[in-house]
Amino acid sequence: MAGVSLRHLYKSYSKNGPLVVKDVSLDIEDGEFMVFVGPSGCGKSTTLRMVAGLERVSQGEIYIGGELVNHVPPKKRDIAMVFQNYALYPNMSVFENMAFGLRLRKTEKHQIESAVKQNARTLEIEHLLERKPRQLSGGQRQRVALGRAIVRHPKAFLMDEPLSNLDARLRVQMRTEIIELHRRLDTTMIYVTHDQTEAMTMGTRICIMKDGIIQQVGVPEDVYMKPANMFVANFIGSPPINFLEGRLRLGKDGGLMFDTPRYAIPLAPEKSKTLLEKGYLDKAVVLGIRAENVYKSDQAEGLGVSIKTETPITGEVYFSELVGADRFIHVKVGDDKIVMRAAAYDRIADGMKLELALNPQFTLFFNRDTQQAIA
Ligand SMILES: Nc1ncnc2c1ncn2[C@@H]1O[C@H](COP(=O)(O)OP(=O)(O)O)[C@@H](O)[C@H]1O
Ligand SMILES: [Mg+2]
């Protein structure tokens, strides 16, 4: 077991080519489950492959267990990698696939046998040991790929979108199994995905990337509640966060109001204080609010949410979608669109006029030019 440290890592695939990883620095602690998440092409796989030793580092350092490994070949790094396409040897049985890494290491035969059997039992693939990969379903192949990785007791596991080829239901099941596997093995895992739900549910911490640059690193709750910028706020969470443009003005009580041509809403006192101190009076800002913090104003009162405002947010429902226990109501407010979470049983017809309230405790504010959160 070992932690992994990245120090000012850069990568370009050719001499004068673009940098696809830029100044990535990150300490992944021993035993941690770190998830790299971001849109396609943001440099997740490249970063992971540099840790594995499958790509050369253009600049910067990689440490595994405190040891500088930039020039250590992949085989000697003692890490295991699981890929999206499983990369099983087609002509070998499941047993041989799982045993392969141990054989290379000249492990004794009876040890190989017991290690493979034990791990096959853990992954519930014991009955498949004699089969060839082509005789397995996608989910079973993925288990074999995991089995092949864990049987070696590596210092760290690297996984690159390992569940992407599975159907939705199996993906959710395997997610849970990988979390349990991590708990049991207590080994450092670095997991790459483009799926924010996967990142939020699996990671002990998550690292959000965009254009080769780390945007934020944190525990899922922090990334969700305190996004560092508009990109993170929008990328994390489903449905995506609502963004509203407006200007901060002084209200009658001396606190700030978020003011737009159609509505004006008072800020929570502590947010008002911070934004005043930071010089945002009369400045244009972006307000971010998640669907679960938007209410019908008549319901908000009962929830103890203060909504006193002279010009309320009024809009018209143009679309609603049922998602299990929730119903997401899409409301048009002038040119703005606001999504509100309601209960599934809350029947709100399209075309209905609504007055909305935003929970002032959970409004986020962003600088409109830099797109950075205003703390
Ligand atoms: N072998 C390669 N040669 C040249 N460019 C590459 C290579 N692999 C990836 N890239 C480019 O590097 C960028 C990051 O790719 P990648 O790390 O695969 O992103 P992600 O895994 O986040 O989707 C992309 O622009 C991609 O086109
Ligand atoms: Mg990738």
TrEMBL record:
> Is Aminoacyl-tRNA synthetase given among the entry's keywords?
no
Keyword Transport listed = yes
Question: What biological processes does GO assign it?
Answer: carbohydrate transport
Q: Where is the ABC transporter domain?
A: 4-236
Keywords, sorted A to Z: ATP-binding, Nucleotide-binding, Transport
A cellular component term, taken from the record's GO annotations = ATP-binding cassette (ABC) transporter complex, substrate-binding subunit-containing
InterPro entries linked: AAA+_ATPase, ABC_transporter-like_ATP-bd, ABC_transporter-like_CS, ABC_transpr_MalK-like, ABC_transpr_MalK/UgpC-like, Mo/tungstate-bd_C_term_dom, NA-bd_OB-fold, OB_MalK-like
GO MF terms here are: ABC-type transporter activity; ATP binding; ATP hydrolysis activity
Q: Write down the SUPFAM superfamilies for this protein, in alphabetical order.
A: MOP-like, P-loop containing nucleoside triphosphate hydrolases
Pfam families registered for this protein in UniProt: ABC_tran, OB_MalK
* Top-level taxon in the UniProt lineage: Bacteria
- PANTHER family, A to Z: MALTODEXTRIN IMPORT ATP-BINDING PROTEIN MSMX (PTHR43875), OSMOPROTECTIVE COMPOUNDS UPTAKE ATP-BINDING PROTEIN GGTA (PTHR43875:SF1)
Provide the protein name. Answer: Sugar ABC transporter ATP-binding protein
| Species for this entry | Paenibacillus contaminans
